[in-house]
Specification:
The chain has one domain. 72% of the residues lie in helices and 0% in strands. The chain has eight helices and no strands. Helix 2 crosses helix 8. The longest helix is centred in the middle third of the chain and has 36 residues, at 44-79. The protein is globular and about 40 Å long.
Length: 169
Amino acid sequence: MSLFDAITGAISNPNQQGNSDQLSSILGTVQAIAGTHTGDPSNSTNLMSAVGNAVQGALQNHQATAGTEGVENLVNQVANGDTGSDPVQALFGGQEQQVVDTIAQSTGIDASQISTMLPSLLPQVLQLLQSGNSSSGGNSVLNTFLDSNQDGNVDLGDLMSQAGKFLGH
């Protein structure tokens, strides 16, 4: 199952947290953040691809040490603003500058702009991943994002583009 399929499945499943208004809000917010900081909302696709890769790596590392429940807790904390600190620090720890530099190199966006955008972007990304939370436990969207036993190719930029088309944006 693709990440887009997992999200649209969560939207249509009343037992999961996701809904189309939430997806539309996340998409609009990400485009607004990219537009405000780079002058071009279309930068959001490349930006989300790079941020998604960084988030995926961080969550996979966290899963290796804290397990699936630990990753779900971290996603929920950052998505809900319950980290008690900077969401960038909560997710990337001491690797913040390396992550910023990697995203900047990948997108061509200045590292200082990336540093300014990340605290606003990360909760949006994790709210998107949170959309798969189920009332019976587990999170199909997060599991798909972490790419359990799949091909390793998960791209949030492509997802945002597909979501925009799905929502008529």
